[in-house]
Amino acid sequence: MPTYRDEAVVLRTHKLGEADRIVTMLTKGHGKVRAVAKGVRRTASKFGSRLEPFMVADVQLYEGKSLDTVNQAETLGSYGSEIVADYQLYTAANVMVEIADRLTDSEAAPQQYLLLVGGLRSLSRGEHPATLTLNSYLLRALSIAGWAPSFDSCAKCGTVGLHEQFVVQLGGMVCADCAPTGAARIDAETVGVLDALVRGDWDRAEAADSKAWSRADGLVSAYTQWHLERGLKSLEHVAR
Fold first, then answer.
1. Are residues 179 and 123 in the same domain?
2. Which of the listed residues 11, 46, 78 is the one where a domain comes to its end?
3. Pair 90, 170 in one domain
4. Nearest to 12 by CA among 38, 46, 69, 51
5. What integer pLDDT is reported at residue 233 of this predicted model?
6. 124 and 164 share a domain?
7. Same domain, 93 and 66
8. Measured between alpha carbons, how far is residue 170 from residues 36, 148, 165, 167, 208 in Å?
């Protein structure tokens, strides 16, 4: 039976039998992997705590027909305890791992892996407000998946400039000529927050007021759920 090793971030887990657990992981080189971790629910387990959601580990697995088997796990990033201890961080992290699960499959997705690890690390360390970290992650994850929003040019005709209307279905800001009737008008500060979050310009994003953050939050949520075609269950529980 083939054995392989990879870096992995744990997305979710499910109980299996009395002592085992099915672990869904996003790996750096093998994409999304579902594997059985045997005996990890016993108190004497050597690596049970290393395979909890939001943890990053170096794992060795046996390749199986439907499920692989975890043989070893060494911690690379211990973010779970800090995240679980804070409700706002916990709800944000749950959205992040859910969308990572939805956007990836068994094909290697190193950019999505690195983005998720960076986002969870930032959350656990409190580097930025949780709302901004989550929304930046969502916009970047969608961009990697091919749904990059447009904030500095018209999403329909490409006209460069600071436009005033945002249309989820068209992919971002649109000019007056392309905007459909009733399209939402967005103020310049909110557009600036969205653009900063995509670019990782934290100084600019954090300099905006809380009302702009809130408006940006609503737009990111709508944009994300439109492109995923069905809602994110965990988004309903995010602490605002």
1. yes
2. 78
3. yes
4. 51
5. 80
6. yes
7. no
8. 42, 11, 11, 5, 26
Q: Which of 45, 78, 111 is the last residue of a domain?
A: 78
Does the pTM exceed 0.90? yes
The reply to whether 101 and 190 lie within a common domain is yes
- Domain that includes residue 55, residue range: 3-78
d(CA 96, CA 176): 34
* DSSP string covering 194-224: HHHHHHT-HHHHHHS-HHHHHHHHHHHHHHH
What Cα–Cα distance (Å) separates residue 202 from each residue in 74, 142, 225?
32, 19, 24
> What is the number of structural domains in the chain?
2
Can you tell me the distance from the alpha carbon of 44 to that of 60, in angstroms, rounded to the nearest whole number? 19
Same domain, 104 and 70: no
Mean pLDDT by 10 residues, the chain (240 residues): 91 90 96 92 75 95 91 92 94 96 94 98 96 97 95 94 93 95 92 95 96 95 88 76
Amino acid, single-letter form, for residue 63: E
- Cα 210 to Cα 49, 108, 206: the distances in Å are 37, 37, 9
What distance in Å separates the CA atoms of residue 58 and residue 8, rounded to the nearest whole number? Answer: 6
The pLDDT value recorded for residue 26 is 98
Nearest residue to 136 via CA among 124, 149, 154: 149
Contact by Cβ (8 Å): 41, 22: no
Where residue 60 sits, what CATH number does that domain have? 2.40.50.140
Instruction: List 57's β-bridge partners, or say none.
Output: 8, 75
CA–CA dist 70, 59 (Å, integer): 7
